[in-house]
Amino acid sequence: MAKCKGSLSGIGGKIRPGVVHRIDKDTSGLVIIAKNDRAHIDISNQIKNREVKKTYLALVRGNIKESQATINMPIGRSTKDRKKMAVDKNGKEAITDFKVLKRYDGFTYIEINIKTGRTHQIRVHMAEIGYPIVGDEVYSNGKNPFGVKRTDVTCI
Fold first, then answer.
1. Would you say 124 and 75 are in contact if contact means Cβ atoms under 8 Å apart?
2. CB of 117 within 8 A of CB of 73?
3. Which one of 17, 21, 103, 109 has the largest count of C-beta atoms within 10 Å of its C-beta?
4. Based on the domain organization, do 58 and 36 belong to the same domain?
């Protein structure tokens, strides 16, 4: 973003110029940035109308028996820890599809597609069904068998 200073969409303001879509803090992945206001509005509408397919890959702890499944559990702010999200019957609709790509001894590599975009959705859903994401210190009860640590990535 520093390289494009002054030539990005102004919709995100001075703090997040051009940022159309971002990912959770401490999560690796893509961020969508628009170079102009028209593109920003168009991409925002595509995301809002669920025309953008979001696919993620994850290694989870445990062996998932199903080859694929849909998790349809509402998510809201945790009543026990305000910094976390949780499955909550009064929360907002949250739908996550996943399919198993490969099984390992005690772990499963999965592809995830989300139908909704709730805060921490994948992390909350996978932990809720008993398969937390490897390296997720927030939703996996601090268990990190490989000592996975998130590192900052420099954009090219």
1. yes
2. no
3. 17
4. no
Written as one letter, the residue type at 122 is: I
Q: Which of 24, 42, 88, 105 is flagged as catalytic?
A: 24
Give residue-wise pLDDT tens across range 38-73: 988 898 899 888 888 888 999 999 999 999 999 999
C-beta contacts of 142-150 below 8 A and 24+ residues apart: 143/61, 145/61, 150/26, 150/27, 150/28
Residues 138 and 72 in one domain: yes
Q: Taking a C-beta distance cutoff of 8 angstroms, is the pair 121, 114 a contact?
A: yes
Specify the residue for token string 């494009």: 4
Total domain count for the chain? Answer: 2
> Does the annotation mark 136 as catalytic?
no
